[in-house]
Amino acid sequence: MKKIKTPIIPIHQTFVKIQGEPEALDHKAICLFAATGFFWDDTTYWKHKKVLRPGTINEIDDSGYLVSSKAWFKWYYKPKAQSFEASLQQYQELFEQIIEEQIGDQQAILPLSGGLDSRSQAVALKKLGKKVTSYSYSFQGGYKEHKISQQIAKACDFEFQAFEIPPNYLWDKIDELAEINQCYSEFTHPRQMGVLEELKKMEGVFSLGHWGDVLFDKGGEEGIQDQDLVDYIHKKVIKKGGMELAQSLWQSWNLEGDFKTYLEETTQALLNRIEIQNTSAKVRAFKSMYWAPRWTSINLSVFAAAHPITLPYYDDRMCELICQLPEAHLADRKLQIDYIKQNNPQIAKITWQDQKPFNLTNFQKNKVPYNLPYRVVDKLKREVQAKLGKKFIQRNWELQFLGKENERQLESHLFASNFKDFVDPKVVKDLYTKFKTQDQVFYSHPVNMLLTLGVWNIRELSSRE
Fold first, then answer.
1. Helix H or strand E segment including 236
2. What residues have CB less than 8 Å from 409, skipping those under 6 apart?
3. Which is deepest, 56, 73, 130, 369, by most CB within 10 Å?
C-alpha cells in the first residue's frame, strides 16, 4: 500500500485502476475530450483507469488499484479586508520567495512572450540576481512576438534566442509528441515541440509562467448569476466545432441519451463540489481544478522532455493566497501590472502584446480614437501581405495542416484503415470535408481532435501486439 498526496494543481497525471469497472473505453468521457480538448475531472480513455484528483490524499494498493481518496484542500473564497497595497505586498513577497526557492543557484531558462506572466518572472529573476537564458518564438509568416520578448530580455541583460516555428515539423515529431503527452492533448498547441531539440541544447531549469493569467484576473464576468454558470463555462471551454464533433461521435457510438444533456449534468455536478458563493472566484476554482491539471499540465510535459520545470503560479502557497485576496484586487491583472511597474518601470513601458501598440503604463488608451491609427496601418499591412500571396499565420495548425505535403500526412492518419474500428469514417470524412471547403478556423479543432484520436488508436493497437 502506498500513499500519494496530489498538489492543488498537479503537474503530472497519476493513473490508478478502479475496482469493479470494466476494461472498456469510456466513450462519454472521450466525447467531452473531443469537445474541449481535455479530459474532465478524473476520466481517461478507459472506464477502469482514472487520474488522481487535485488536492487529495490517496491510498493505492500494490496492484495499482485506488483504495481510498480524500480531499486535503478545497478551493475557498475568504478575502481579507485589506488595501490593494497590502495585497500587492503579499503577492510580491510570495512570488519572489517561490522563485528564489525554485531556482536557487541554478541557471533559469525563461520562455518570454509579449504578455504579463513571463514578464513578471523576468522582473523577479532580474531583481533576485539569477542567471537567465531567455528565448521566444514566432510563427513563420506570423506576428513577430519575439521582438517584444527581445526588448524585455535586453532590459534585463538576459541571454536571448529567437526561434521561428517552421511548417511541416509535426509529422516528424508526432510519434515523439504522442509518447510525451500520451495523446491527452492535441498536437498543434504545444508549439515548443517545433524547437524541442534547440531547447535541449540549453542548460538549466525552466521557469514557466503558466496559469498566472487565470489566477491573477477575474474568474468570471461581473454580475454573472449562479444559475448562468454552466452556460458561461461552456462558452469558455468548448472549442469551435467541438460540439459538432462530440455530438457526431456520441451518435455514431449509439450512446444513451444525448451529449448536450451529459455535458450540462457533468458541468453542474463539478460546480456543485465547489463551495464558493462568489461566482467569479467559483469559475476560477473550476478552471484550476479541472482545466489546469488536464490541459495546461499535459502540455507542460513537452518542456519537461527537455529540462526540469518550475512553475511559481502552480505553487500550493500561491493557490492559498488567491483564496484570500479580494476579487477586485485580482481582476484585470492589476496586481501583476503594478508589480512590474513598481519593480521595473523600463519593462512596464515595453509593448503589451494583448494591448499593442500600448504598454502597461498607457493601455487604457487602447480604444477609439487613440488606437485607430495603429489598427488602420496593421490592417493595411495584412492586406498587402495577402495580395502578395503571403498568408498571415496566427495559429500553428495553419503551418502543420495546410499545403499539399501536410494534407497528405494528415489524411494518412485520418483515413488509416484501422481507425474505422474506433471512429466512424463518415464522421471523419464529414468534418474533414467541412474543414477543407467551409471554414478552416471553425473545423480546425475537430480535425485536431480526430488526429489525436487516430494516433492514440494506433498506439493502443501496437501496444496490444
1. helix 229-237
2. 170, 171
3. 130
Q: How far apart are the C-alpha atoms of 30 and 40, rounded to whole Å?
A: 9
Q: Tally the residues of the chain.
A: 465
Strand pairing class (66-71; 56-60) = antiparallel
Q: Residue holding cell 529567437?
A: 162
- Mode of pairing for the β-strands spanning 2-5 and 15-17: unpaired
In this structure, what DSSP letter does residue 136 have? E
Picking from 149, 191, 178, the residue whose alpha carbon sits closest to that of residue 395 is 191
Q: How far is CA 227 from the centre of its chain?
A: 27
Q: What is the dihedral of CA 179, 184, 189, 195, to 10 degrees?
A: -20
427-431 contact pairs (CB < 8 A, 24+): 427/245, 427/248, 427/249, 427/252, 430/248, 431/241, 431/244, 431/245, 431/248
- 125 and 99 Cβ atoms separated by less than 8 Å: yes
The per-residue pLDDT string of the chain (465 residues; one tens digit each, 9 = 90 and over) reads 899 999 999 999 999 999 999 999 999 999 999 999 999 999 999 999 999 999 999 999 999 999 999 999 999 999 999 999 999 999 999 999 999 999 999 999 999 998 999 999 999 999 999 999 999 988 777 667 788 999 999 999 999 999 988 899 999 999 999 999 999 999 999 889 999 999 999 999 999 999 999 999 999 887 889 899 999 999 999 999 999 999 999 999 999 999 999 999 999 999 999 999 999 999 999 999 999 999 999 999 999 999 999 999 999 999 999 999 999 999 999 999 999 999 999 999 999 988 888 999 998 887 777 676 655 556 665 555 555 556 667 788 999 999 999 999 999 999 999 999 999 999 999 999 999 999 999 999 999 999 999 999 999 877 765
Whether the CB-CB separation of 256 and 28 falls below 8 Å is answered with no
Which cell numbers in the block locate residue 432? 474533414
Instruction: Indicate the Cα dihedral angle 52, 322, 299, 290, nearest 10°.
Output: 40
Within 253-395, residue ranges assigned H as helices are 259-272, 279-286, 297-304, 316-322, 327-330, 334-343, 345-348, 372-387
Could you say which DSSP state residue 287 is in?
Answer: I
